[in-house]
Every structure is written in structure tokens, then in C-alpha cells.
User: Fold this.
Amino acid sequence: MDIAEPQAQKETKPEVKKKKMHVALFTEEADKLFITLPLTGTKSEARLKRPQTNFAPVFVFPGSKKMGSGDYLEWQISYDTASTSEPSVIETVTFQRNDKTRYGCELIWLLVQAVKKKMITKDDFNNLSKLLDSESDGVQELEKIGQKKQEIAPVWASSASYISYFQIVPDHILVRDNYSVEIKISQQQIGVHNQAMIYLHLPLKHCTSTNTNNGAFFERSATKSEKAKYTITKDNVALISDTIAAFALASKPHRKDIRTMFTQLSTQLFKE
Assistant:
């Protein structure tokens, strides 16, 4: 079965009208893939963050604050969707979750396009397949959110008879020259278990504005509805493989989902 082309891949088309994450993926050149991420969207799953010395990174709203050279876009990338109206959906790649059909999207779309453009080879694909065959526990199954009592509690807490603790949250980051991939443990919003979340970090210094009149990002605020464009070439295409590997390491359910889609992709992408 041939892989159906996603519904909206041109930069000139309205970006993600029905897509809650407001992320657009497209390809218009033979050896490149493009990602556009909103800078000012408050409901997007891509947000600007700023590293802090000895503290966790903080979110920055670039519509009101100046962007800095060390800022990066944190994108909670997905590999599946329940909706066939998602612009990056691959309708011929599916799996079942809770008796409902899920379709490949985003990360799977990037993989498919990279293979078609010969940016990812059959050997690369097969190496990833071997990683997905593992039955070992992942970060989600092995690690927990810890807790440590503060030896010196804040004055207000002591005076009010509170006992103070630090939460110790497992967080693993693979750092590359022009991107990073993060596996973070968090508590489920619905449910009683912890879950492993995958985030792509795209440094702002490696992005360009979709508004060519705006110039460089740094030392200015973002304009209304401005987006950052990140380009994938043969030099950083490992971003796709590294992100797939992160999902495989993150949890057994993630690994099972992607393994099911890889089985279908192996026959759809590499015909004898």
C-alpha cells in the first residue's frame, strides 16, 4: 500500500487550522524539511524557554519580553493522532489504543519524508527497528519522582508549621550541536501513574523568522502571530532518529506503538 501524502504541506497554505498544536510541517526542496513553530501562541505545545544557572529553565513569552541568544523552543512532538484532519497525518500508518484507531503524524511524517528524500537510508531505518524490538523496561517503568526533605526550610514555612520538601524529577537530555531531545518524567494529569514525556529543543539561534522583514530574533520581542522556522538537512537529520530512539527508551507503550507503525512502514517505504 502506498503512503498517502499529508493534506497540507505547502508553506503558503493556512497553517494548521484544525491542529491544536499549531505546528506546521512542510517540504518544498529536494533535500530539506521544514518545521514552523509559533512564538506567541498561548495554547501551543511549542513554547519558548530560557536556561537558568542552577535552576530549571523558565518559560518566556516573547510577545512581551525580548528574546535571547540562549533561548530555545521546547516542542512536545507527537507521533500519533486520532484525527484524520491533522495536516501531517499519515492515514496508511495506524495502530490501536483503547480499541480506537490512531494514525501516524508529526514524527512519523518527518520520518516518511526523510526516507523519501533519501536523507534516512534503509540501514538507518533497520537500526531503529532493532531498537524498537527491545522488551526491556523504559524510563517510565524504571524511574520515579523522588522527594527529599529540606534541611533548612523557608522561614515562612517553619513559622506556619509546614514541612518542606524538594521534588526530584528524573530528566534526561541528549544534547547535539543544533538540537536536543529530552525525556522527562511527569505525573499523569488523568490517572495515577507517572508518564515519560518527549520534548524537542530547537535553539532559536538555529531558526529563522517566517516574516523576513523582522530580521534576527535577538534583543527584540516577537511580533503578533510570528513563527520560527527550523530547517532539517542531511547535517541534522539525526534529529528524527534521535527522537524516535527517545520514545523507544521512554516507555514500553511508546515502543510498542512505534514498532507497529514501523512494521507497516517497512513494506510501504521499501518495496522490493
Residues 149 and 165 are 4 Å apart (CA to CA). The chain has one domain: 24-140+170-266.
